[in-house]
Every structure is written in structure tokens, then in C-alpha cells.
Amino acid sequence: MAKQVRIGLVGYQFMGKAHSNAYRQLHRFFPELGVEPVLKALCGRSEEKVKAAAEKFGFESYETDYRKLVERDDIDIIDIVTPGDTHVEIAIAAAKAGKMVFCEKPLASSVDKVQVMCDAVNAAGVRNATCFNYRGVPAVKLAKQMIQDGVLGKIYHWRSVYLQDWIVDPNFPIVWRLQGDIAGSGSHGDLVAHSIDLAHYLVGDITEVCGMMDTFIKQRPILAESDDRLGGKASDEMGDVTVDDSSIFLARFANGAVGTFEATRMAAGRKNHNKFEINGSKGSIVFNMERMNELEYYNHDDPAELKGFRTIQTTDGCHPYTGNYWPIGHIIGYEHTFINLIHDMLQAWESGAEFHPDFNDGLKCQKVLDAVKSSSDTRTWKGV
Amino acid sequence: MAKQVRIGLVGYQFMGKAHSNAYRQLHRFFPELGVEPVLKALCGRSEEKVKAAAEKFGFESYETDYRKLVERDDIDIIDIVTPGDTHVEIAIAAAKAGKMVFCEKPLASSVDKVQVMCDAVNAAGVRNATCFNYRGVPAVKLAKQMIQDGVLGKIYHWRSVYLQDWIVDPNFPIVWRLQGDIAGSGSHGDLVAHSIDLAHYLVGDITEVCGMMDTFIKQRPILAESDDRLGGKASDEMGDVTVDDSSIFLARFANGAVGTFEATRMAAGRKNHNKFEINGSKGSIVFNMERMNELEYYNHDDPAELKGFRTIQTTDGCHPYTGNYWPIGHIIGYEHTFINLIHDMLQAWESGAEFHPDFNDGLKCQKVLDAVKSSSDTRTWKGV
Amino acid sequence: MAKQVRIGLVGYQFMGKAHSNAYRQLHRFFPELGVEPVLKALCGRSEEKVKAAAEKFGFESYETDYRKLVERDDIDIIDIVTPGDTHVEIAIAAAKAGKMVFCEKPLASSVDKVQVMCDAVNAAGVRNATCFNYRGVPAVKLAKQMIQDGVLGKIYHWRSVYLQDWIVDPNFPIVWRLQGDIAGSGSHGDLVAHSIDLAHYLVGDITEVCGMMDTFIKQRPILAESDDRLGGKASDEMGDVTVDDSSIFLARFANGAVGTFEATRMAAGRKNHNKFEINGSKGSIVFNMERMNELEYYNHDDPAELKGFRTIQTTDGCHPYTGNYWPIGHIIGYEHTFINLIHDMLQAWESGAEFHPDFNDGLKCQKVLDAVKSSSDTRTWKGV
Amino acid sequence: MAKQVRIGLVGYQFMGKAHSNAYRQLHRFFPELGVEPVLKALCGRSEEKVKAAAEKFGFESYETDYRKLVERDDIDIIDIVTPGDTHVEIAIAAAKAGKMVFCEKPLASSVDKVQVMCDAVNAAGVRNATCFNYRGVPAVKLAKQMIQDGVLGKIYHWRSVYLQDWIVDPNFPIVWRLQGDIAGSGSHGDLVAHSIDLAHYLVGDITEVCGMMDTFIKQRPILAESDDRLGGKASDEMGDVTVDDSSIFLARFANGAVGTFEATRMAAGRKNHNKFEINGSKGSIVFNMERMNELEYYNHDDPAELKGFRTIQTTDGCHPYTGNYWPIGHIIGYEHTFINLIHDMLQAWESGAEFHPDFNDGLKCQKVLDAVKSSSDTRTWKGV
What we know:
The first copy, chain A, is an alpha/beta fold. Helix content of chain A is 33%, strand content 29%.
């Protein structure tokens, strides 16, 4: 009989749907884990909406105040998927209430705020994790293993882009992700944050950065009504866009590697083009989230006339996670990255092992984000 | 409040896992459907195994005899995912008991047997469907719409391959899919059956065929123990492989198009390479299940200097099904093809609309399969 | 000082341009060959046109009657690139005159006619070659070496398509390649002939075939005036198309492999899509002429988690031919296939070594072409 | 009768071969141009080597002193393809002698030196051009036309990488391209220079940059003997590498676009991966020199459900240059970029039209190169 772990989820939009699904599905695909999440309570400010969402996602109950949620005895983990400006207070409350905390990235909009969150969980001594879900991609975990095993040799280059195009239309309205006071930043915290974490995970610590952040379309229609994907209806009135459209920077890593990072929401044709390439002395790898079931790999030591980038379909039983899903060649999707990450998190938390990405990894990421912002403002390199 | 439809599932291996998952997930992604499947009972001959599987998949109860299952009052749909040699008797029993019947492909191992199944559901007047799940791929449904709308013009060519490599190793044991008395055939009924249905769906009726079926490795180790993916442990003893390794044929369609079909399990490097290309007078499309979130499309009427195959990421809100999942660019996987197909099936059954693929579509597919087999035996063209 | 070999070329359209270019360039890229072609004379029936072409291509002189050309003492090799219906008489005349003969494919429109050509060169004891230029692609020669070295193991599958779309428009006029009395056949002799030769070269002898040949558009405008690419101007009058639009067949090889061949000029979006895939017990390869500087290769013996099709850029110094061109990654094009093939031909002829593809290889190809035609007519398998 | 233009070429290694080939081939493919280059004289310091090269490339004569070459009355154009440290003096001498000057990039190793070259050609009033040969790629010229026609709308992003891997092996010797006193720089002047020119050509003026240049392997074996590709034999002695392995920078364009540039010779698996992507308000394009016969294009205005990056095969008669080569789908290669560029240069020079890229374009490129170098040294943004 699997041990139950009871989830209290704060937030019910896109990420709420993704997290709920992961909890529901985890035990179905990983029954040997021995831990089964239970969707105990969903929390949101609008009773009407949170009630409907709770029913839709399969929660047993709902709350309209996170302060009540964190105090409930029947909750083990507080999972925070609200817009970024609310993470700090919820995480602190959860930590104080002794709950394990799982929070969406970016943890907050500045190092100071994230530091407060870290301090809170450390003071409370509670388990904590940041939802850098792309660590849960089989191909990414395979990449990690390859690098750890020395398959790529010494790393020289990191090269990432995270390209989207959902706001190319100048009449796309100012949804919350385009509002600085709520979202903190634009592609910066939303997209580059993922790339930074992947670089930390795969290459190592970033020591200094030099960046530029831009907003190409400075005014857009004010939002009339949001939908549950990423968009919404535009009103007739215009307003200021207070976040960046693109965030681009150069970086140096502690191990001597150099890197480029670019994120934008203005790359026509790119949908969720979260791509990176790593070049090392013994080989290279390339990953693109749009084809997340594949990892490209070049082995510098292959016979001279037979060298080339190979496309590994990371769906075999020997690949990370995928033996728990379907036979080889039968792909998984975006939602499974959450299942996989939560699997690793709960496995570690159960066994008492260290788990990454935790809040400290979120802090490390935020330090880079802040340094890039500062670099962009001052037009110089900044140490992290 | 969604209306409940109660599922009795017979079989609990790979396909049992896929179907169960689809039923569990359907309402989460398509709450507006108004129908919610309930996993009422799972059926299998081994009590130990079926009990464990029922728990794993989330069924309320289990049965060890399908005859008892079909008689239960609390079951609305009998879903059959057992090996092919048992479909006929179960489907007949279900029909006689007045249950709706959903059955995995191929329905049976010959036209005669499938005809009996069709007769049974017709006589009983029960709803029926065949699980050609690839009709539930967004890109495939988009292809269907494009062809219906005349986007490709008059169709000239169908060209499909369904390539796998899981038995390239001559020491891969004789699992049930390699046993003719259970599976009926090899790549023929397992893989080409899918391609035939897709061709029927997208291009139209096949009128005659000429084929060749081959078994390259005629003896393999007898199976010691199967696993729940596609493989198992080999014993020391050798046995005869009684199914085809590859099935290849030429075809003519009623509308004048010509086609090629090829399926094999001996194509090193191909994992689930279910690919087709259609060439018409106004354009072409290409689909590959390994990249199921993409559809390639060539528009013959594009400006001369800007013509080329484009890769459509079929993940936008305007594409079939995908608006119910994640934002654009966030891919879905193999399992969602079942959710989508079952969505369409239940939607049709609820509304009283005709649904395809039904048993008759399974029969149409079987007629082609039988004609190919006969053609291969007699080395001539065969009408369908 | 390189030894000169003097060329008399009959024909000056597309292929005349390609062959002339190859002769002119050969010595520049392969100076170590020790043989330098000299463009001695160009031959064509229209004095005005052949004179202009001779000047354009760089020939020293021209002739308007091939009978005069073959008698000239200052010619060593007669190269025939005229439309197919004239190959026989020219080749016979050349052979009788003791000239080495190099002829475009298909050699003629039937086995009987090709046999006469073979008899003529054999009787005369003259060197002879068929211009299956795709044997001169670096990736194809690499494939040959890999197969000879056992890299792919036992071959199970050959799968080729040769797809074009230049006659998809029903108003494309009846150029000579669409006239049966001149061209012999359509995609059959023009395209599938190449695939057959590649299959012979890479896999081995074809023993039996079963095919279907189709003409989708049976009437087209009569040609008013041809251009020097593949097209021309349409007149107002309609005429019958007397060649096939597509030629498709199944095949069995002497070594137990099975194959599919398809050629069509009606595949919208495909330009020169000459593609094949070979699956063997140890690996697979894929080649596409549109990306002729690449060869895809899957090694079944790679580590389990790192298996995948790799894209070899066949431009390294260690690859066939390419060390004589440019540094790695700097691609060559279509025209170099002729240079490479002629290089190998002249090298063999100089050294006294056997050379393939010779007329006998052209005959072998024609036997398959004829068998497919016969099979298509009789709707049964035909031995080759 | 075509007018002859007489070429004096200084240098005979890789680029000498490429330029000679282009001159020899130009008239064959572009007879309507009305200008035919004549390979009059080749110049190099070693009589033995230059004599052999002149014979190999097809020059009528040779010189061992460029000062004698520039004075010859039978020379119209001085073409300079020597290592970078000699460009200045040769170009000045040629200009003073009233010759038209065509020079390989980078023109020299600093803005000051290039300015001197510009002054010299301006003072002499002679025609001049810089060999940014990638402007001669059909796909690149198509891209230029598309952008000029507004097909991409307002440009937001330029994103280029120029990746090679020929020095990944730490034992690769210090050829002249790795010697700062001869080459000026490493990937900086050799590779990024190309990307900068393409960005100037396609997007517009770069106004400021921020870069980092790195040498990962600081010591390598001293060269024993060079070959005529890019490599050579290593001696036993080690020496300092005095050029950069990689050069990476951020850029701002005058029109508001932002860009990233990266060049490296340490990207395992990348051979001549000269790739760029441009994102505009109406669409995007992607080009990769390794597949130089293709241009990827995304049209933001395509119907919503049919949007996607399309791969244009730029080999049709309607595409730039390619109508002069082979039928559609029959690709050209690296060498043809030189033919095409020289075609445009001679066409402009004959007609009296302005031609780009001229020395001034080389200067513009050098200004960016110098600014990046300065930025890398000072760790700040630099205006161009």
C-alpha cells in the first residue's frame, strides 16, 4: 500500500492544471515509488472559480485563503503555482506552518525576495523544491548522466535559446505575464530562468554575465478577459508593457566554459523552442523541447568516416523515466515532465536524500537573473 | 454534472494500461464533453495479476471471467484489449448482453471472424468501435480536414511505412505477438492494419492489392517470461516463428490513387516509425508518429520562389483536440491518441451520431489484410 | 604531364551540359589521375545549335552527323547523351569504329535493344560504361564501402523512392521526356532506372518483381518550344501522354532481401527526391539526393541509451572523392557526381581494371525495367 | 563574343583554388554575362609551388613577386587570396597600378589597416570588392529580396552561429590560421567576419557591440608542414596559440533589432555550420550553409492551422542564380558561391553600377570586429 502524501495547491490556471495532472498520474506510472499524492485541497481567491477548478482537477476540497490552507492538518505539501508576485508570502506562511513547499519558478522577482523564501524554509527546516520541470525531461536527465560520466569531456560551450512567438501580434493584450508588478519580468523570468537552471544543472555555476533586455512593443491593448491558455481578449484601451520581450546575455562558467542565453516572445514561428547545445572536448549534444523525446549527440571518437550527430529517441526502457510509460518509440509529452520531476522529488523526500532543484537552486537562478538585469541596466559585465 | 459511462475492460497489458489511462484522463481534459468514464471493472484470467492491475490502473473491481463481466448491470461499455485470438468470443458475448463494444485492432485474424463480430453487434443493435487510435492524433485529424476541404486536391499517391526494430536481434524470444495462433499475424495485423485504416480514413477505399509477406528469422528462442512492454526473457529452447516479420503491398484506390504500404519489425533504428505521405494535385502532406505533434505540408499554390514543405506544429488552440491540453508548442504524447479517439467515440455515442472507426471499418481493414495475405500466397493481384 | 583522352560528345541539352562540365573540371580536382579529358568535338543535328553549344561548353569543334564523329581519328571516347531512342545506333557505330563508349541511362527502351548494344561493344572489344551518375555521390560510395565491410550485416530491406513534381501542373506540355517513342518510358526509365542501379550496386541482384505503372494525366498540351532545363512552352493543342507518370514495384533480391521501388513525377513538393533506405541486421542507412552531402547511419551496436540515426556529413578528407574538393563541411553539388564517376571510369580504363557500371550493368537494369513493365501489364510477379 | 577580363591572382592555397575555379567556370554557366575571365597570371613567392599551382589551376603564366604582377599590362583585376597580413601592401600596390582589386576577407587585421586600403582604392579611383562569398548563395540572395520586399516585416532578431570543429583535437598544430601575426585573429576574423557581413547585408548597420573572445587551448604543437585543406603535420615542439578559438558578441542594429553572433572552431560535430535566423514582425527565415540549397521560411500570415517553417529548396529557375545551373532539385555547392559573387561583381563593374560588398563593406565589417575586440578587452559595450 502506497503511502499517501496530501497536496494543497495554490493557483489553478495553466500551471495548476499541469501540477494537478502530475499528482493524479504519478502513482499510475510509478506505482513502485511507494508514495501516492492525494489532491486534498485547491486554493484560489475566487470561490466560484476555485470550486469549479477543484472539481475539474479532482481535488477533494478547496480554500479561498492560502492562510487557511497552510494551517490545515490534512496537508503535507503546499504547491504554489500562482503569479510570481504572491510566491513569497505564501511560501513563508507554508514554511512557518511546517509544510513542505514546492513552488513554481521564478521563485520571486529579486534575489532579496527569494532569499527571504530560502531563509523561511531553512528556519522552518522544511523540505522545499523549485519547479524547474525541464529537469524532468528524459533527454535532459540522459544529458546529465552523459556529462557526469564524462561522455562530452571538458565543456567549452553552452548555447541556449528559448523562443516563442505568442506576442508577435502588436494587438495581443497585456495579460498578467506582460505586467511587471505581477510577473516580475517577461521572457526573462519566464523563459531564460529555465535555461539558466538547465545550464546550472548540466554545465555548472555561472560566474559572470553581460546582458541586454528589450521591449520591442512598448504599448499594447489592456486585457479585457484572460483565457486558460496564455491569451485573452483585448480591450479598446492601450497600456504600457512593463516587462521585457527579450532577454539575451553572455555568460562565463566557473569551469571555464562560455555561454550564450537568449529568450524572446517575438520570434515568429517558434512556439516553445527551448533549445540548447553543449560542445565539449569529446562530443556535443543538442536538445529542443519541441522534440522533447529526442536528444542529438555527436561522438567525437566515432570512426572518422562515420561521425555525425545522431538523433537518440529517448523512449527506450533504458532511458530515464520512459520505462515506466510506453514501449520504445511511443512518445510522452509536456505534462510528463512534471510527473517525472515530482517523482524524483517525492522519492528523495521519502528516502531522506537531498533533492534538487530546491529553493537554493531557485536562488542561484535568481542571482543570475538579477545580475543580467543589472548588467543590462549598467551596460557592463556583472559577477553573479 | 457529467453523465457517467461505466467501463468493463478485458485485458491488462500494454493496451490495458493505455485504455485505462485514457478513461481516467478524458474528463480532466474534456470536461465539456458531459460524459465521464468510470473504471468499473477489469477482467483477466489470472486473479492475482488482474487484481494487481485493477489496483494499479484504478478500477473499482475485477473479474476473472469475461462472461461474468458482460452480464454485470453496472457496465455500459465492454472494451477488449486482449490478444487477437480472443476478440471474437468476447465481442459476441458483450453484444449479446447488450453492451456497447470497443475493441482493439485487428478485430480478428480473418474476414470471416470479423464478419461474425459485425453480425453480432448488428444483430444486437449495440454501439461498436474499433481502436484505430491513430485517428486520434491531432495531425491526422487535421490532415483529414485538409483533404475534406480540398486542400490537397485530387489524390495521386499514398505512401506509408510502419517500421520498428524490436525483433532485429535473432535472440529476441517468441512473445505472443510472434505466435500466429494468438496474434493471427505479425507486422501484418499489428502494424499494416493501422496504415490501412489511415489510408481508408484519409484517401478512401482500397480496391485491389498485391503483396509479399516475409519472415526473415524463422526460428527464435521460446519465451520464458513476458514483461509489460513488448519483450520478455528467452528460454534456451528454440521454436518456430509463425508470423510475418514484414508485410509489404501495392494498392489501388477507388478514386484512382495508387499506394504503397510497408510494415516491418526488422528495420534497425526505426522505433515506432508510422509514417505516411500523400501527394495530391494541389499539395502534399507527410506524417510520422515519432514526431506526432507535427504535420508536414506542401502547398503547390504558394508563390513560386517560396514553396516548400512546412512543418506545422499541431499544438495550437485551433488544431484538433490540442486546445484542451496545453499552450501552443507544449506537446502531447502517444497516450493522448487514445483519449482523443475515445472522446470522439463517446461524443458521437452520446449525441446519437454515427461514429467511425466502427466494427465495419475494422472489417474493411480486415478485407484488405486478407486480400494481401491471399495475394502474397498466390503471387497475384487480389481484389478487396 | 597528364595523358589526354579526347572526347566526342553526342547531344548538348541538360546532360550535354553536365558531361561537358565534368570533363572540363576533372583534371582541376583530380590532377593526380594522370588523364586529362579534352573536349574535342560536340555533335548534334542542328548546325546552328550545336555550334553555339560547342562554343558554350568549350569544345574545339563540332559535327552534325554522329557517323562522321565516330570515324574521326582524334576522338577516343564517344559519349552519348541524346534522347533514348537514338542510343542504339550511335553506340553501335561507335563500337564498330573502335571507340570507347560512354552512354547515358537508360541505354535503350528494351532488353533486346540494350542487348544489341552490349553485343556491339563486346564484339568490338571496346571499353564501355553507363552513366549511372549517382554511383559518383560520395555518400553512395561510402554506403558501398560500409556494406562491403559488413557494417550493416545481412540486408533485409531496400526501400527507395525517386519523387519529382515537375509535371504536376496538367498544363505542363508534352516535352520529349513525355513521349514514349523518344523517351521509351517516363519515370520508369528516367527515375526508377537510377534506383534499380543503386540497388544492384548496394544490395545485389534483383530476381523478381511485381509492379504497377500509371499515367494520371493522359492528355496534355503539345509542346511549342523546349527550354534547356526540363520544360518548355505549351501550344494550344492537346495530345496524348505516352509514358508513365509513376512506376512502382515490389522486388526480391537474390540474397533474400526484399525491396520497394517507387518513382513518380507527380509528388507535389518533391524536386529531386532520390531517396533510399537500407535496413540490415547490424544497422541502417538512409540517403536523399536533395541532401547528397549527407548519409544517415544507425549502428545497432551502439550503447543502448545512445543509439540513433546519425547524419554523417560526407565532406571529410577521409570520405570518397571529397578530399579532392574543399575543406570539411564545404559541400559539393549535383555536377560533381559526373566528375567523380568519370574519374573512376577513366582511372579504371587507364589501369586496365574492370569498371562498373558498364553496358552490362545497363542491361541488368533494363532487364528489371522490362520485367516491371511486363509485370504491370500482366498483373503478376515476373522473374528478371 | 564575350569581352575578356584578365585576372592576376595572388595566392594559391584553398582560396586560390576556389577563386580560380570560379573564374574558369563563370562563362560556362553565365554566358549571357558578356564578360569572360581569363586566368592570366598566378602569383606566389615560391617559384616551384606557384608554377605547379598555375598549371593545376589553368593560369597562362605565373609571377613570384606581386609588384611585378600589378605592373603587367595584360592584367585587369588583381585578386588577393593570401594570408591576411599581406593584403594591405598588395592592395595598395594594385590600386596604385590602376588595377581593379578583389580581396579576400577579412581585408586586414584592424580598422586602421583597412582604412589605408580604402584610401588607396579611392585615391586611385579603381573598382574594388571584398570576397564575402556567402552573399553569392542563392538562399541568401533570396533572403535579401524577401527582406527588401517586406516579407519579414520589421526585423526584431538576428541570431547567428558559425561553428566548426577542426581544432577540437588539442594536438592539432598551429597552422597559419592559428598565428595572430599572420591571420590577425582566429574565429573572429575568419568566421564572425562572414556573419557580420551577412547581418549588414540583410538587417543593416550594427551600432554597438559587447563581446567576449576566448582561447580554450593556449598551447599546441608547432606546425611541421601544412596541407592544402586546413590542416597539416604537427611537430614535437609546443607553441603558443595567438588567436581566439571563439568570438561571441551581442549587438544592436540601427533599426532597433538586436542580435547575437557566435563563432568557434571548438564545437564538436559542427563542420561549416554557418547558420543564421532572422525574426521579423511578419515572419522568420533560417539559413545553414551546410544545407546551402535550402532556406527555411515561416510566414506569420499563413492560415492559423497551417502555419509552420517551410523548407524552400532554392534550386528553381525562379531563384537567384540557379536557373543558370541545373534543373530544380539538383543542388549546387560551396564553389558556386564564388562564381555567383564574381558574376554579380563583373556584371556591376561592366555596367558601371555600384557593387557591394566593396572595400567599404570590408571596412564596415572591420569596424565591428575591432569594436568587439575592444569590448572583449574592456568588458563593456562599444559603439561601432
